[in-house]
From TrEMBL:
Record flagged with keyword Ligase: no
Keyword Transferase attributed: yes
Name the record gives this protein: N-methyltransferase
Pfam assignment, any one: Methyltransf_25
SUPFAM superfamilies for the chain: S-adenosyl-L-methionine-dependent methyltransferases (SSF53335)
An annotated GO BP: methylation
Keyword tags: Methyltransferase, Transferase
Gene3D superfamilies: CAC2371-like domains, Vaccinia Virus protein VP39
Domain Methyltransferase: start-end pairs: 42-131
Region annotation Disordered: where it falls in the sequence: 140-159
Length: 246
């Protein structure tokens, strides 16, 4: 996917770190609401550019796993004190356990039930008994809404007052009948400091599963889960909080 590969260094303008403070505070609250023991070391799977980590690292010792080298580089610059490792959330095995595991919207790239179960199995494998996971997809089947949005930011100016800028359209289509994913088209317009402009099209597939499917898969991999609906900027989200069975 171009957004996480050749365009990775544009990520701070696609999704600015300042936009994550409110939701990161909510994830911290959810972790603490379910914790019955120490909550010091936390693994994040699919950590991307490290935006959530930048707000959570003051509360936890974080280990960040992300498959994209470009996104890891962005995160390393933002979070140099965190351990960064390559890995696919379906298959990565670190050989150690954590007090908590966090998975943000990268879980949406699991487009089949088999992939989703594999990712949740990875969560379970890396949790100590009694450990807590917070998994926060952008949508379940019940909360999914098709639509479009236009966003983007201007970067900081250099000494000559020139800055890079980015704007993008995100167009989310409803899942086709019988499909477990939606197609999301990104149209990005990138303006360099010299004023040159180019456009890039990028298509992504986001898994969309029912709440019952999520809860069943958590149970199958040894995690006792509950659904935590929440609202962010007026939009409903379904978040899952689960504890590793002892």
């Amino acid at each position: 996917m171009k957004l996480y590969e050749e365009l990775a260094d544009w990520w701070p303008l696609v999704s600015p770190v300042s936009h994550y403070r409110e939701e990161s505070d909510e994830y911290l609250r959810l972790f603490r609401s379910a914790a019955s023991g120490p909550l010091k070391e936390v693994l994040e799977l699919g950590s991307g550019g490290g935006n959530n980590a930048s707000h959570l690292k003051s509360a936890f010792k974080l280990t960040l796993v992300e498959p994209s080298e470009g996104m890891r580089k962005v995160s390393c610059e933002l979070n140099p004190e965190c351990e960064h490792l390559p890995g696919d959330m379906r298959t990565v095995r670190l050989g150690r356990t954590f007090d908590g595991v966090f998975v943000h919207d990268a879980i949406e790239y699991m487009t089949t039930e088999e992939d989703l179960r594999a990712a949740l199995e990875t969560v379970s494998v890396h949790l100590r008994p009694g450990g807590v996971t917070v998994v926060a997809p952008d949508a379940t089947r019940e909360s999914f809404e098709p639509g479009s949005a236009v966003e983007g930011e201007d970067g900081p100016p250099d000494a000559d007052g020139r800055a890079r800028s980015l704007r993008y359209l995100m167009w989310t289509l409803p899942p086709e009948p019988g499909k477990s994913y939606s197609v999301v088209h990104y149209s990005l317009v990138l303006r360099e400091k010299d004023g040159s402009v180019r456009s890039v099209l990028d298509t992504h597939h986001y898994g969309v599963f029912s709440r019952d499917t999520w809860l069943r898969l958590f149970q199958e991999v040894g995690l006792d889960a509950r659904l935590e609906p929440r609202t962010l900027e007026g939009h409903p989200y379904d978040t899952f909080v689960a504890v590793k069975r002892r």
